[in-house]
Amino acid sequence: MLLAVLTGCGASEPVPEQTTVAGEGATTYPLVVENCGEEVTFDAAPQQVVSLDQGSTEILLSLGLQDRMVGTASWTDPVRENLEQANADVPRLAEEAPTYEVVMGTDPDFVTASFGRHFAQGGVAERSRFAETGIESYLSPTDCDNGMSINGGGTRTNALTVDALYQEIRELAQIFDVSSRGEALIEELEARRQAALEDIEASGLSVAFWFSDLKTPYIAGGLGSANLLATEVGAVNVFADLDDDWPATTWETFVDRDPDVLVLGDLSRERWPGDQLQEKIDFLQTDPVTENLTAVTDERFIALHGAEMNPSIQMIDGLEALAEGLQSFEGAQ
C-alpha cells in the first residue's frame, strides 16, 4: 500500500512572490473595521506590525508587506517556500508566543493574530491593553464566531468556510491600502482550490486528522479548518460530531471509529512528543492499541504540515495534498 507523504509547497503551484510597494491610495482613512466584536479604527496604514502567528505572517508576506513587519512568532512549520526571501529579514521574536514586553520592544503600531489565545488572559496581552497604548490589533475572522474568539475560550457554532480566510486577506489588504493585491491573492487561491477539487470524489472514505500528542491525541473536530478540508473533498471526518476545533481524545476511541485514512500532522516544532511525522507512524505501527487500525495495517497515511491543517493560506496547499493523497487510494477516484 502507498504511504503518501506530501508537503504543500512541493505539491502545488506556489502563490506568486510579491514585492513591496507603496499604498495604492484606494483605502479611505480613517478606516473602521468590525473585528470579532471590536471596532478598530485606522487613521493611516500601519508602519510597524507584529504578527503573532505563522498564518497571519504569511498573509502579510504574500501582500508584499515585509518592510512593515517588525516581528513574527508562533511557528509550527517552515515559512512557505515562495515567501522565504521576503521573510528572511523579518525578526522572529519567538518560536512560540512572545511576551508582552518583547512585543512592545519592537515599538509596534499594529498587532495581528490568527488565534485569540494571544489576546486572552494569560496570553501575550488582552486587546484592551494594546489599545491603551495606541496600538491597534486584529484577530483573524477564521477564529471568530458570533463575536467570540474560538481559540480564546469561545465555542464554534458555525462550521468554518474558506470565505473567512478570504475575508482576512481582504481586510488586511484594505488596512494596508493594497486592496488589489488582496484580490489577486484571493483569486489565485480560489483557482487552485477549484483545480484541486475538479477530479476528486472521496465520498466512500472516512478520515481522521491527528495534529499531535502521543498520549491524548489532538484530533480535528467537526467545525474547524481540518474538517473543512474533509468536506471539501467529500470525505467523512469520523470525529465530526465533536464541536471543538482540536479536541483531545483517547486511542480507544480512535479504534472504535477506525477511519479508512489517517491524516498526520508533520510539524517542524518539537513542543510535544508526536509532533513529527515519523514519531506518529512509529507509534501507530508498534502500539498494541493502534497497530490493527485499518489505516495502519493498510498504510493509508497522508502527511500535512500543521499550517496546512490550520486556517491559513497553506490550507489550500493542504487541500491539494489531501486530494492527491486520497486519489492514490483505491475507492477515492
UniProtKB/TrEMBL annotation:
A Pfam family recorded for this sequence? Peripla_BP_2
| Domain Fe/B12 periplasmic-binding, chain residue ranges per copy | 48-333
InterPro entries from the UniProt entry = ABC_Transporter_SBP (IPR050902), ABC_transptr_periplasmic_BD (IPR002491)
Which N-terminal residues, if any, form the signal peptide? none
What PANTHER family does this protein map onto? IRON(III) DICITRATE-BINDING PROTEIN, VITAMIN B12-BINDING PROTEIN
Protein family membership: Belongs to the bacterial solute-binding protein 8 family.
Q: Indicate what this protein is called per its UniProt record.
A: ABC transporter substrate-binding protein
